[in-house]
Amino acid sequence: MDPKWSYWTGPNSTDEAGVSAPQTKRELPVLLVNEVGGVRGVLEAHVEFLKKYFHLITMKEFLKNKTHWSKKVQAIYLWWHKPIIDRELLESLPDLKVIANSGVGMDHLDLKLISNFGVKMANTPHAVSSSTADTGMALLLASARRVVEGCQIAVSPDTECFAADWLGDEVTGATLGIIGMGRIGYKIALRAKAFEMKILYHNRNRRTEEEEQAVGAIYCTKIEDLLQQSDFVMLVVSLTPQTHKLIGKRELELMKPTATLINIGRGPVVDQEALVEALQTGIIKAAALDVTYPEPLPRDHPLLKLKNILITPHLGIRTDETTRMITEEAVANILAALNGLPIPNEVFP
After folding, report:
1. pTM value?
2. Catalytic site residue from 46, 146, 191, 266
3. How many Å apart are CA 252 and CA 247, to the nearest integer?
4. Residue 61 neighbours by CB under 8 Å, 6+ apart
């Protein structure tokens, strides 16, 4: 077995969670995925691993022979929000036991609808936290030091000298406001501490005093206080009805005119029209976004025409190591559900 898949011991043994893997191909439960490869398919490099535990079929295969597969599919693995889970699909899968999502966010799923069909749900929070935190810090540093713009100047055939007054923003000693101090938010705080940043945070639930002291973080009961004091505001929240357009015109106007907004949560957490206006008029200095709505943005979107913005293509979890860990964590969730064991990362409606 490829040593990269360190979490699993093999198809004929017991894994670290104590789940016995199937021993013959005939016993393999059927796992439905959107496709293999392509834009929205499970990664081809993961297929061999998945096939050690499941009989893998794609949506194309399923739709081609629904009668044959409908009572065989026991699990679905969502990669990049696909396949779409709707009532029609759920009704066609009477023996479906579990839906495993790749990543943390579940806003693309109707959790109540799925639960009503007696289907369990799980995500992969442990696998994604470090790489997403790294992405947040990368955006902060790149935006502050104007890395992308600087690279363009450095490689441009028109560049004859580097302007002495072409300056970025200091990160060391600056104030970082983290909105959403969950697993990822806390890892961002750990990284920011290493940069000697002052850390403020706003969260539904306050961290323990010990956790706050470990990173030097100060809790802000009101989001307004965080916005007014921060040089960098980083959004690390899931998309819910409560966080939809959490940052709008009013919130942007509370920020310093020298501040930068960074979003690694979900695109709709920010009112993009209000953000365009704020960046155009100098209400805030800059923005760095790993998420937008839609993704990708239409090529004529006004955000793409601004110089004081950095946009990346939802890079948060996109490393080889993290994607492997996501699949490992998803498989652990599925096998637990199919064996009647507690699901490590079950999500409830």
Report:
1. 0.87
2. 266
3. 7
4. 69
